[in-house]
Amino acid sequence: MELVSIIMPAYNASRYLKESIDSVLAQTYRNWELLIVDDCSTDETAKIVQTYEDKRIRYKRNTTNLGAAKTRNEAIRMATGRYIAFLDSDDRWLPNKLERQIHFMQEHNYAMTYTPYYVITSGDTYRQIHMGPRSLNYYQMTRWDRIGCLTVIYDSQAVGKMYLPTIRNREDYGLWLLILRKGITAYMLEEPLAVYRSHNGISSGSKFALVKYHYEMFRIALGYSAVVSALLTLRNSFYYVLYTLTDNKSLAS
């Protein structure tokens, strides 16, 4: 049974952190390490982690606030497992998530996989399910990020230990593209095995910021020219609307 390293950045995460950790402890797949890197939280994050005595949980606190990308990368540097998985400190997994997904990867010799996931509100109301396509190559992924970070597992033996680009936002999207640019195809296990907590919608201001972040990802993280980065970002805007309509299925009664 191969070791899975679970990457969990935490910043003022005390409200939902216990739920996230408990969802890892409940996994039917037992060979994992949970790497929690605290990005200088000022709440009870550290105290919550200290209540757990499971030696598979490893905690580190940054000496300065580094942001999401560098904090995740610090956890990846700590990782000793073959498989690298991601779970944010306010999300959670279903109990059979690792068992089903690792089996899926080993059965088909896949280097990167993801799954559908449920979307809930802060009040734990199940709002929708995000599906996505059955597979994604690099070109398809440049259109729009259709993968939930909390569902991804990649095989570091197959692709190497890959790190997130240190950009201000959309660093997870940048990582998927860097992996797929190696000629890898990502495959979806068609079972919703994770629960993503949505805190708010996207305002018009944040939509503008999202466009900027995507441009920076193409320009800085992937090294495209200014013109190509702008064109890819414009194409993103079109596919954002298209995939929002097709990938998300409402669970409202």
Q: How many domains, as an integer?
A: 1
Binned strand content: 15-25%
Briefly note the structural class of the backbone: alpha/beta
Q: Order the strands across the largest sheet as they lie in space.
A: 3-2-1-4-10-6-11-9
Radius of gyration: 17 Å
> What's the order of the H and E elements?
EHEHEHEEHEEEEHEHHEEHHE
* C-alpha end-to-end distance: 41 Å
In CATH, the architecture is: Alpha-Beta Complex
Percent in helix: 25-40%
Number of helices: 9
The CATH topology: Spore Coat Polysaccharide Biosynthesis Protein SpsA, Chain A
- CATH homologous superfamily label: Spore Coat Polysaccharide Biosynthesis Protein SpsA, Chain A
**Unreliable spans:** none
Largest sheet: 8 strands, mixed
Q: CATH first level: which class? A: Alpha Beta
Briefly summarize what is shown:
With 253 residues, the protein is an alpha/beta fold. Helix content is 39%, strand content 21%. It contains 9 helices and 13 strands.
Descriptive keywords:
253 residues, alpha/beta, Spore Coat Polysaccharide Biosynthesis Protein SpsA, Chain A, 8-stranded mixed β-sheet, 21% strand
Describe the model.
It contains 9 helices and 13 strands. The chain is of the alpha/beta class and 253 residues long. The protein has one domain (4-201): Spore Coat Polysaccharide Biosynthesis Protein SpsA, Chain A, CATH 3.90.550. It has an 8-stranded mixed β-sheet with strand order 3-2-1-4-10-6-11-9. The protein has a 5-stranded mixed β-sheet with strand order 5-12-7-8-13. Helix 8 (204-221) packs across helix 9 (226-247). The chain is globular and about 50 Å long. The model has no long low-confidence stretch (mean pLDDT 93).
